[in-house]
Amino acid sequence: MFSPRSTPSSGRRQSLRVTGRKSLAGTPTGLLFSPRRTSLAARSTPTRVQSYSTSDALHFDVQTFGSSLPVKVMEALTMADADDQISVKVDESGWAWMVCGERLIIWKICQTAVAKVHLLVVVSDKSISVMAVAPEGTARFWPSLAHEGNYTETVVDMGENLCNFVVAVRGGSFIVSSYKGQMMRLGADPSGKLLQRALQQGQGVLSGIGRRVSSLFGMRAPLTNNNLHSVLWVGEMGCLYTLTSCGLSKWEVDEVTEHQVLSWDSSRALTESVADAIWGSESNYEEIKEGVNVTYMDMQLSQDGLVVLAAAWHPSDSPCLAYFCLVTLLDNGNNISDELSVEVTKYNPPFQSEDALQAMRLMLPRASSPAAFLYNEELVFACSTGTGRGGLPEEKIPFNTPGDRLRGGGCCANLPVFFSQNSGLVAVVARESASMLPETMEDSLCFSLAGAGPEATAMETPTRMEPVAQEDKTKLLKAAFLQFCRNDLVGAQTMTDELFPPEGDGDGEVGGELDLVVTRINLDLVDDYPASDPRWAESVPDESAGFPLTSLIILHQLEDKMKAHGCFMDFLLQVGLLDRLGQTAVRSSPMATRLLLCEHAEKLQAAMTLKNHHTKHGELVNRAILIALRKSNAAVSTSLTAADVFFREVSQISSVFECLLEEEERTLKENPVDSVKWAEVVLSVNTIIKVHNTGSAGSLYPHPYTLLKHHWQRLQP
Length: 717
Description:
Blueprint: H1 14-17, E1 47-48, E2 60-64, H2 71-79, E3 86-90, E4 95-100, E5 103-108, E6 121-123, E7 128-133, E8 138-142, E9 152-155, E10 163-168, E11 174-178, E12 183-188, E13 194-198, H3 211-215, E14 228-234, E15 239-244, E16 248-253, E17 258-264, H4 267-279, H5 285-288, E18 293-302, E19 305-313, E20 323-331, E21 336-344, H6 354-357, E22 361-363, E23 371-375, E24 379-384, E25 395-398, E26 406-412, E27 415-420, E28 424-430, H7 439-450, H8 470-485, H9 489-499, H10 513-526, H11 550-574, E29 583-586, E30 589-592, H12 593-612, H13 614-631, H14 642-648, H15 655-670, H16 676-691, H17 704-714
Parallel strand pairs: 3-26
Antiparallel strand pairs: 1-2, 2-28, 3-4, 4-5, 6-7, 7-8, 8-9, 10-11, 11-12, 12-13, 14-15, 15-16, 16-17, 18-19, 19-20, 20-21, 22-23, 23-24, 24-25, 26-27, 27-28, 29-30
Main location: nucleus
Keywords: Nucleus, Transport
Family: Belongs to the nucleoporin Nup133 family.
């Protein structure tokens, strides 16, 4: 029996950290290894769980994964006391391990070609080795699971701090960390004795210099008041990342030694970026951001960079909500890029406590996909990192039936796999009908096809001999686009070929039918009415009254439109229509249709950038928006703000620039030349126009360079 010392009462947060962790280090009780010796004819293809109660999940199915659970796993669950901590980890290698009270059970869940398990279990061609660490530091190492009784024990020297992570790295060694960021490297000598030493800190040409100087180079000294939130081992690159409440660190690890190559003070940059993404467009943002709290929970690697799971809340908000965000950081080797991406998910439950937030974990099943899953003991939330086209529809999948809890999970066979207390190993799989389009855009397209629900997509294409009106072709190509987004590539290609045969006449002409239909659909996407936003149907407080989600909702709508535009471009490329596009008459002149599609994308980007300018120039931008709406005779209902109406029609976004100049002229006439107001409006208008002076397709018509020239000409005496 492996019985480590009792857990100190100071480990207040450990019960929140054990479930779903990347290690067994957070187990509060002793560990007993109990291997399953019989071979498994496991399958990696999940099957539908007919009895599982997830009928309220619209876009996902919960399916069983792998073989039935081993007898010892079932016995452990059956015999577990109410106070026993249960934690399960699923690994991409096809192995799973469970800690249940004083038992550690490891079993194979599916056959894969992966040779190593990165974390607690290391699989080689001849044997499996395991390192298990209890919170207070008691460690047990099995060199081979073929000899269950052959193990070595030691105590990891973390002082009074509790251990929270253990990962397997190169050279058959392991790295153990504490909640306060201490890092120890453990390995066995030829006699089997476990040796340990502190991880080398700040090695290289900058080691030894002061913290103030080192911060200039992206290096910083260890901080005493620092909590460790995540440890990530990337075996392919031989890199170890740690995420603390104050910063991100990186080591390059070889068979024997390691070198710290990065220590980035991420606290300020991440906090400001997350706060700006959520509250940045509020008129009193400068006041709001001082009270914003941000905490980190987890970190994973995608092809676009390191993805950090963060949550933000503002105590003065009523109600106070916790906004879960995915922040993507680009690792350039020895530094982190200044440019980062913040995706504010639509999961924003009421804020309870920071400890409760720490129970949430992040899973990225495919590094090449933007699909992401957040999960804790009670739910799985499907979302996207925001760095790729398409992605998953955002949806909460509850696991809160009586007696059920999620005890952990991981990625296997490129699927998110979870261990349900009631159902065992299950995979969350997108339904075949689930679309890669954002849900709001999907609903709008379906409505436009028949003025009804999704059944509108069941339109039949006419035969080639039947004439089809252009309006009908627009609807039919929309239906083909929806089929493509729902992964029915064959149906989408068939419908497209029927509508626009490859040998069709008129390709490449100015104003050809194909160009007109494609342009019409793309324009419908960028100018889509957000019908799912209740504020377009119900009256809500005016933005000046402090409606906290207005700006965030508009940004989400623009982001959804950008994703839909990206999906439409993918569709045109995949079905062979993109290369067949010719020219379209735009502003009384011919323009390449592909360039016009680029213009729509630039206008979407310009709209998002302009919306973010509310942070510092809210009053100026709002007045310009009112002028633009007045010129276009656009009505603003009592349930909407002027920003709602203006940012809905993205194709007319450029109208605001002339209005900015008009507002500037009015301000200059009303204020003396040497006044602060005079200088502020000149600098603000100049900044906004310069930021938008990056288009290559003439999207911001008239071109910002022309506006900027006129702007400075007006300032001449």
